[in-house]
């Protein structure tokens, strides 16, 4: 009898170990692995950005005089010569009637904790003529994911209707940055893009909305 009990306990122990090993393997397989030099894209709205990341942005841009830059979105990080951090900001040259624009800023934090700018590019800017031209949004209008206003919810619906039938990439809206009156309206969104092969990127999507129909008419790469 004792031999039977010992045998059963050994079997239960082996099954338990096997299950633990299987669970560990499953966790390891689903764990995100980021290679050196690859971007870990994980957009965060301005109200969810950690204070230390905000400080990096502030320290990097405080010496860039003549332009007011407002942090709008954190895109992610990249391990290369320290750590790179990518941001989207809304910018205006500091003179009357200046036209706003949105830009991507990539800041590097070295091993010595020195902060520098490695990339500064415009994404979209307001046209000189407002008649039929591109008009960049205000900072409040842009934050459709955290606004919870009727206007923001309507824009999210337009975006989601435009991308719902795209099969090879899953797009999610992050910021609404501009509009343009054409045949209907063009709306410009900064979007996270997840492809079928799990590649993550950041795109500028132009969505045309006419009557009750919306479609993506242009996609530009940002990061």
Radius of gyration: 24 Å
Portion in strands: 35-45%
Total helical elements = 5
Number of strands: 10
What class do helices, strands and sheet pairing give?
Answer: alpha+beta
Shape verdict: globular
Mean pLDDT: 87
What does this structure look like?
It contains 5 helices and 10 strands, in the order αβαβββββαααββββ. It has helices at residues 2-30, 51-61, 139-142, 144-147, 150-163; strands at 39-45, 67-79, 83-93, 101-109, 115-125, 134-136, 169-182, 184-195, 200-210, 213-221. A 5-stranded antiparallel β-sheet has the order 1-2-3-4-5. Strands 6-7-8-9-10 form a 5-stranded antiparallel β-sheet. Residues 1-31 have low confidence and may be disordered.
Main attributes of the structure:
223 residues; alpha+beta; disordered N terminus
